[in-house]
Structure prediction request, 725 residues.
Amino acid sequence: MNTEITIDGKKIQAQIGKPLIDVASDNNIYIPSLCYMRGKPCLGTCRVCSVRVNGHVMASCTVPVYEGMDIEVETPDLVDMRKALVEFLFVEGNHNCPSCEKSGRCELQAVGYETGMMVARFPYRFPVRTRDHASKYIWLERDRCIFCQRCVEFIRDEETGQKIFSIDNRSTNASIEIDVELADKMSPKQVKRAADICPVGCIIDKDLGFNKPIGERKYEIKSIKERILKGKPNE
Amino acid sequence: MGQKLVIDPVTRIEGHGKVTIQLDDNNQVVDAKLHVVEFRGFEKFIQGHPYWEAPMLLQRICGICFVSHHLCGAKALDDMVGVGYSKGVDMLPTPEKVRRLGHYAQQLQSHVTAYYYLIVPEMLFGMDAPPEQRNVLGLVEANPELVKRVVQLRKWGQEAIKTVLGKRMHGINSVPGGVNKNISIAERDRLLQGEDGLLSMDEVIEYAKEGLEIFYDFHEKNRHQVDTFADVPALNMSLVDKDGNVDYYHGNIRITDDDKNIITEMDYHDYLDYFSEATEEWSYMKFPFLKALGRDAGSVRVGPLARVNVTKSYGTDTPLAKEALERFHDYTKGKANNMTLHTNWARAIEILHSAELIKNLLNDPDLQKENLILMHSKADWTGEGVGVVEAPRGTLLHHYKANQEGNITFCNLVVATTQNNTVMNRTVRSVAEEYLGGNDIITEGMMNAIEVGIRAYDPCLSCATHATGNMPLDVSIYDAKGKLFANKRR
Ligand code: SF4
Ligand code: SF4
Ligand code: FES
Ligand SMILES: [Fe+2]
Prediction:
């Protein structure tokens, strides 16, 4: 069933129960997002998709459409808040884009561009994180993990459905972990999917490297905004 | 009363170091040293990184010769994944030629920068000219037409680099076993034919020829100075092909003496069997030498002068450079040329040589072929690799080891400026004795002569110390009591 909602003053017919973020993109309104993947259950971990719904700030991927919604997206304080949330992600880890093979196809970097981030206004934390290269096909470059939990939820052992990735500890001690035994059973296709699903250069396919020339990388061909508005983020 | 000189910084060289000159009571030079006071960071920093990141990270040692570092690393990675020269595997034609194209373009670009921005003003205005004039700005005033051409040449070099590596600086093109892109017809034609604001290939060659004329003219007018300034002996070292001619990308390392006899020739993978590195407490830069000959006799010179000394000839496919090289060889009648300022002659020849090599490559249809990577499997993995190329400043070596998981455990870099350490020190000493010794007053021109000597090597001290960031260089003169007598920092 449909209902009328407003986004930034614009009246929109929307299907009740549909994720607000999808309704927005279907109506050509881009809300920056990081952990959300259209068509998959929402994770709600990054909060980058924050908007104001009837006066309350909410992550738009977590909110299903209901009657009487009045939504603000482009209000200056919200724009700045989303940018700040992206900046937080940068200062929380250790990101060195120039030598990162995900550069040009990294969602964090792409959303950094979309939100107009130039530098982080917060102090860098420079966390000390180890790398994990014990599994045969996957290299975990933990410095770049943003704890979105995509890998945890969506990459599972194909036989048993068991989780292959998990997050240990909390807060500043959190760490992405990999079950090496299960990981070594992954098919090349699944390895590729894991590397693709990771929005940053944390899950790395050991055979991939810098295989795409500059100028031909995913977000250099088509921006993340355009992709999301088309509803086809990966084409 | 004795005195000691320090020049600080030796300007207009890449990086930062320090020269000290010790005088005795009669103001004669008793000691002169080039110190490099910076810590080696990159070799340690890269440990723990995935092996395929090495050529990406390590090229950031330098803002000038990054393509050399990138390719040297790429060759080491070819070895490591088991499809490199260490296993006797030849690179596929397309990736090899694409890599060479990037390499020659950088050589052109780097030499043009060193030659016109740093050296030509020196030649045109003389060592005694005031520093405000003796630089590229002085050149703008004296010969704006020339400067316009230089700017266009550099731009062309940058565009050629960008075509291969995707960016003017610190791009990406090589991956283990090959490259990630070939050169399209449109890209090729743009470089060959030029466009609005971009020279054509033939204009590049034309300008390169003019560069050589500038040297000839300067030489004609200043023959005595050019021929006697820091005539210092050293063995000469270069990569050579099977015919004993320089190959900037690949070959054996050949070392020749004053009579151009071959002293040693080696597969560069065996470098460590032949070379040792001495250290001195007064410099972070090491002093490599041939074990068999010892520290003094076994030190080598690398770079343009060394290469033109070692190489027998250039190919008939680079006729202009070939002719220029013959003129160079005739000048010393078959002997090696040890005249430091002739390095600039050699550099001008190599600008022309690279331009001709680039033209040949651009006309090679292999650049458009699709076979870009030599396939390799886990079974081929060797975990160790050595890459050597002739960087603009001379022979460059990268050596890595990684464990089974692909984690870099060891990295050693031997760069051209380090190879030249001993001969640069000899040069500093020679110039100091000749220009400063026995004088009561130290003039700007005398101090500058020291810099001219060092600059002939176009040293890259940020490469040599693998330091992150830039460092300036400084010249001081000390008297016999160890008191600072003169210091230079511009
Ligand atoms: S993961 Fe993304 S943001 Fe982080 S270093 Fe790599 S490219 Fe940059
Ligand atoms: S590894 Fe990648 S996908 Fe997994 S939580 Fe970290 S950032 Fe997200
Ligand atoms: S995209 Fe909505 S919380 Fe991450
Ligand atoms: Fe350098």
User: Anything to note?
Assistant: The interface with chain B takes residues 98-99, 101, 131, 133-134, 139, 141, 204, 206, 209-216 of chain A (CB under 8 Å). Residues A 95-97, 100, 102-103, 106, 108-109, 144, 200-201 surround iron/sulfur cluster (ligand 1) (CB under 6 Å).
